[in-house]
């Protein structure tokens, strides 16, 4: 009977595909998980799922106080509703990048045409608002598809994931989020937070707004300068 061998091959195929779609995986092609400049005392701050009319302006204010720079991976549909926020992000020295048009949960399972639509529509929306086309793309939930690389190549985009994240969309304890972001933190790390879909603490306040000042202070204490991806990734 060949069934055991066939089932084993199917299981291996699914395991390989799952591993290749992992947010930090590189099996399917280039994936920026750390900054490319060796030895630089810099980390990249990245914020996903915005812009949010309540949270994003407060994040920008906190970054201003620390003289920090960041990259905002925005959802195209939200950007279209809040164009002034995108222009404000750029005006304050940060960059706006592509996080798909609608952030579908099924993004990694979609076909080539659907992937191209999600990426290109967001690219057009962002460029139309800011006058500058994004250079980087982060997949919804970080999950990539075997079909994604040619889509990104057609738009001149580079795939970015992260070195570490705090799960600040679901965790309610700011200290726990902060520990996840700072444990083992070092030069060239790419940090993931969220100004959109921000989780709330026990008081109902966005967790990211409690975490960010402490994170920026920790970076300063370690001699690490927060930068945007455009500052260091050619």
From TrEMBL:
Annotated CDD domains: CE4_NodB_like_6s_7s
PROSITE patterns: NODB
SUPFAM superfamilies per UniProt: Glycoside hydrolase/deacetylase
Tree of life domain: Bacteria
Domain NodB homology intervals: 41-227
Function: Is involved in generating a small heat-stable compound (Nod), an acylated oligomer of N-acetylglucosamine, that stimulates mitosis in various plant protoplasts.
UniProt family annotation: Belongs to the polysaccharide deacetylase family.
Protein name: Chitooligosaccharide deacetylase
Lineage: Bacteria, Pseudomonadati, Pseudomonadota, Alphaproteobacteria, Acetobacterales
């Amino acid at each position: 009977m060949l069934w055991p061998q066939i089932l084993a091959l199917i299981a291996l195929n699914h395991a390989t595909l799952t591993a290749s779609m992992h947010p930090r995986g590189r099996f399917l092609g280039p994936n920026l998980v750390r900054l490319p400049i060796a030895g630089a005392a810099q980390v990249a701050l990245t914020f996903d799922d915005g812009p949010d009319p309540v949270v994003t302006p407060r994040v920008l204010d906190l970054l201003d106080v620390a003289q920090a720079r960041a990259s905002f991976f925005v959802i195209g549909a939200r950007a279209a509703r809040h164009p002034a926020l995108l222009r404000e992000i750029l005006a304050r020295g940060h960059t706006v990048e592509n996080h798909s048009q609608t952030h579908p949960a099924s993004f990694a399972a979609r076909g080539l045409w659907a992937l191209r639509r999600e990426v290109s529509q967001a690219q057009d929306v962002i460029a139309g608002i800011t006058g500058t086309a994004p250079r980087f793309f982060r997949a919804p939930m970080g999950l990539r598809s075997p079909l994604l690389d040619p889509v990104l190549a057609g738009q001149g985009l580079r795939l970015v994931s992260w070195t570490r994240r705090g799960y600040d969309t679901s965790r309610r304890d700011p200290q726990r989020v902060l520990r996840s972001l700072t444990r083992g933190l070092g030069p060239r790390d790419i940090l993931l937070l969220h100004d959109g879909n921000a989780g709330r603490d026990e008081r109902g306040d966005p967790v990211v707004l409690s975490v960010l000042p402490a994170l920026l202070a920790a970076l300063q204490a370690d001699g690490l300068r927060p930068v945007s991806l455009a500052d260091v990734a050619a």
